Amino acid sequence: MAYKALYRTYRPNTFDEVAGQEHIVRTLKNAVIQHKIAHAYLFCGPRGTGKTSIAKIFAKAINCTDKNQIPCMECENCLSITDGTHPDIIEIDAASNNGIDEVRNLIEKVKYAPIKGKYKVYIIDEVHMMSPGAFNALLKTIEEPPAHVIFILATTEPHKILPTIISRCQRYDFTKVPSKEMIKRIHLILDKEQIQCEDEVVRIITQLSDGGMRDALSILDQCIAYAQNDIKVEHINEIYGILTIKEKLDLLSLVIQKDAKQCMKMIQSIVEKGMDIKRLTTDMIDLLKESIIYEYTKDICLLHSLHKEEAEILNKEADLKKRFDMIDIFMDTYDKYRTAGDLSGYFEICLLKMMDDHKNIVSEQAPMINKIVQNVSRETLELSSDISSEEPYQNDIETSIQEPIQEKKYSIEPLKDEFVVQLLVGANKPEKQLDQENFKNILPYTMELDWAKEANLLKNGKIMASSETYCVMIFESQVLVNEINEKDKKNEFSKFSKELLKKQKKIFAVTSEQSKHITDLFRKKMSDGSLPEAIRFQMKEETIEKIKEPTQEEIILDLFGKENIVITED
Ligand SMILES: [Zn+2]
User: Fold this and answer.
1) pTM, whole model, 2 decimals?
2) Which residues have a beta carbon within 5 Å of ligand 1, which is an ion?
3) Which of 159, 347, 401, 534 qualifies as a cystine partner to 426, CB 3.0-4.6 A?
């Protein structure tokens, strides 16, 4: 018998079998129950997150002849859609059939009534790969589709699709499958296939697949092919050239304990095994990040790679400041890989740098910076402000080691509710809509080296309010909110906002929790007529200046720090 790939065998067949994507499943289910079917759907999202699977389930649900269970998986329509033989379900892979002829051909047939089911469903995968001619032909059909036709367009790159098509579709954004869901599904499959597999392997698979269920199952396939019925950690590590979490934590421990000798030894063996240094670097960042998130939240649900105990050990080994510094150094090193021939050399230097607590780099540069500080270029302003805020803090470290001093520097104050209310007063709806539209294009930037840092920080945010010069965004984690506000203080989003939002804007971040308080406060102030005046920012190339609002001066100085603001008289 020919071997069938796991992801084919275990494709979800009903809405209930889908891993993740709850909001999409719920909405589509309701649409079927209430007979509110649109004529065109756009499914966007990363690869392997269930777009075409859900498209097929939806096609079944609307053609199923059972009254109660949809899809029933027993009627003729359900069965033939599942095995791919239904004449009314037309699947097109635009990546291989992107010619205008195919689309014309398709359109020719659109007008004929369905043969067996109630609806003809065209599922067009990777629709962004279609040629412009084909796209235009498709557009005409989508504009005036016959009542019995439904289009489901799937894409990993929605920004490449004509806005005229997007506006005619009901859009659904698929998210990466959460690791918990993925782990559940992998265990279920292992049980059914009667395969022994260490838990650690499952954890590694979810990391490697980065939220893509199909990738996860392909990796599992490879492991099975390699190790048969008993998969162990060393197997997957051999196949993929990676370290176990424990090995990575050991390496971090060596750095923290400043054991340079053992550390170099370990790198040596990593290099000899041909492991992927780039991946190792991002993995290290992820582990540190998770430990920090855990330290702030104590919420084990937010742990994906680490176990609670591992996070606790790491948190005990290195204080917050140390871990933030390590992340910075890893990130800088990752940037350098772009131009580096010898990655392992950079990686070694990176770890050695972390063993040095005294931040020599900053103090050595100080005299030089003092000389050029009059020069008002953005970079020098940033550096000088860094130094002035850093120095008193460093003295603290030397004098009072036992104090939880890292709190002082890293517990960045959240934005004051009153201040955000002022931002809301100055915001407007058309600008918010523009920003929301542009913001949808953020994902590709996460892969571009020039923008990856900024895009990754912002990508999971939701726009709460916008004006011509700023944007208030909601994020789930306080850590992220703090980091974004901190970066914005240094104007680090000005270039990226110009690229993404087409206007240079400041980015203010709040947690969803805080956004609720703020909305309540805003409503209250509005109803009793006590809304404050709007805050205005004046945008200049590369710098953003605050225009003075006398009563708010204190708040603003507090918010941005004196170094970063030029106050001008109105
Ligand atoms: Zn059925």
Assistant:
1) 0.53
2) 64, 66, 71-72, 75, 78
3) 534
